[in-house]
Amino acid sequence: MGIENKLANMGVVTTTLESAxxxxxxxxxxxxxxxxxxxxxxxxxxxxxxxxxxxxxxxLMRASPRQSDLMIVAxxxxxxxxxxxxxxxxxxxxxxxxxxMGDCAxxxxxxxxYAIYQGVDEVVPVDVYVAGCPPRPEALIHGVMxxxxxxxxxxxxxxxxxxx
Amino acid sequence: xxxxINTSTTDLVTRFPxxxxxxxxxxxxxxxxxxxxxxxxxxxxxxxxxxDLLTAATAVDYIAENKMEMVxxxxxxxxxxxxxxxxxxxxxxxxxxxxxxxxxxxxDFQEREAWDLYGIKFTxxxxxxxxxxxxGFEGHPLRKDxxxxxxxxxxxxxxxxxxxxxxxxxxxKNPFRDNLNFPKDFDPEKYVVTGEDDLYMSLDRDxxxxxAGNMKTDHIVVNMGPHHPSTHGVLRVAxxxxxxxxxxxxxxxxxxxxxxxxxxxxNTYLQIIPYTxxxxxxxxxSNNFGYVTTVEKLMKIPVAERAEYIRVIMAELTRVQNxxxxxxxxxxxxxxxxxxSLYAFEERELILDIFEAISGARMMCNYFRFGxxxxxxxxxVLQKLKDLVFERLPAKTDEMERFLNENEVLVARxxxxxxxxxxxxxxxxxxxxxxxxxxxxxxxxxxxPYSIYDRFDFDxxxxxxxxxxxxxxxRFDEIRQSLRILEQALKQIPGGPINSQKxxxxxxxxxxxxxxxxxxxxxxxxxxxISNGKPNxxxxxxxxxxxxxxxxVESMCIGSKIADFVALLAMLDIVMGELDR
Lengths: 164, 581
What we know:
The complex is a heterodimer. Chain A is built from seven helices and three strands, in the order αααβαβαβαα.
């Protein structure tokens, strides 16, 4: 009973290592359970039965940054929260992605004053911005799909350069 | 709108003729108390006049008169109009006032907030630290002479913007793109965080040191949050533990602070409405309700009859969905991870669909206007609403109760835990379902009716044990009562216009002050607005229910287990958008 016998029955699929890895990363992307403000409620709605983000392998929200790949910044980031957010981001293992959900996280939104960062990209690098105040759950799902597309296109070379 | 003339007001001057005067400014009510006698008067207000619930305490900066004023709103838990008393001090640093924390412990956080944002020192306050801004922040942002670094103008619309000039990004004025001033001689490289020691020492100032003044080491301090799955947002709590038992606890907030009050003072009256949506983001309709009620009080305008009904319908729908979510989240925090919340969310989505159909937005409805509402309810939506209220929601509420109430684990986790008795609840200015679960039937819809709540037949839900189980069950009671109101409102709703005023971008608000309050699902939501006749309010203050309710958490938790504290946070139903403002 060697492995060759079994392989013959199964058929063999060949692919590149890159696309296999990216496929794995997109279909089990664990977002961090990290709600800041109003958008967090829509993030919960996106998880709930009406919208059901688990269709895309996104249902497992991890409370610990050390177990998550994706940070969804859902809400306004105050100057007091900024250092905390950065620390959480630093604690996430590579590779990691960030979605700025909603207007506040993207550009400060309606809160243009001294207490709020005018966009979370002042604190952490952002991959996808989702507009809306708050974005509908469909919009968030679209943002997640967009980040999946992005991840599918990533190459090892890019990683190598990024983490040189 | 019942704004009865306060008959008891004259008594305070008769009682203290030497140091209490009537507030004679036009549009103002209440009394001005001399600073030296504040404690004496406050004690009399509580003990002799019976105003046992101090709901709001806030400061106002009258920079033109060089005065700083502290305004207190006291109410009776038996209902009726309130008593407003104020104390004025010269606006010269250090501004000092006696603390009222020994008379109403519920004033704790509100005094800290006044210190933080206005720089008023309360002598006798045991733990006067900044509460919303961080330690080391420069200045007191709500003072009228405090300007942010990217300051453009006092009020909107800004002249630098189109059409008077080129649009420029304020951020470009500062090469570091940081809208912050730092204290003099501030060096980020050498900065040592100062507030943390104060925080940890404030947990339990006495027992943490032995006779020699050294810190004992047998207790551990645990930080929960600001990122913690069960703190309902970005609340941080420093807990001192003896094993698993809490012996000291201090909430730290401000991680979502954007200075709602200051934004309000910059905006016009109409522009504030969408900001109020984002206070308590579960209940945007209730927030709108509170704000427009207050401004209508100032403007002295009537509300269109049909709009009154629509308002009540929306407010009660909001309450239903809030309590459903509350139940789901409480289950989450107790460990029933996500299944009950999914049931709750399913019903909530149906209510949000209604909101979307009438206002265009699921959550941030921005639906109320001064004198009415912005859009009418279409007939098909009304029919949908009727189906929901008469058929589906009562059945689903029963279903949830059937699924959950008898659950052994739930009962074990909730029954007899965190008992808050009626006296303590009043002492800590707790309002809303938490107060009613403690046996005080104080519901603003009955106690001080606003809008048209006096026309409806409903009971004030009340329970008597004050433990977590009662707090949980009272939410179901309130859903039932809300459905009762909804049924009546939907049957009685008349036709007609939906706004008594013409639509206007700018409303004229006569000078004066007003404190309006509504029973939001979390408790008393109050708005204190001072107008000086200009297009934007001179002072705009929100009295959030969650913020004040959280005052009680420290005393409720001492002696209980840390796991129960997580459930307690869910039970208090705090929401950070409202708490941090």
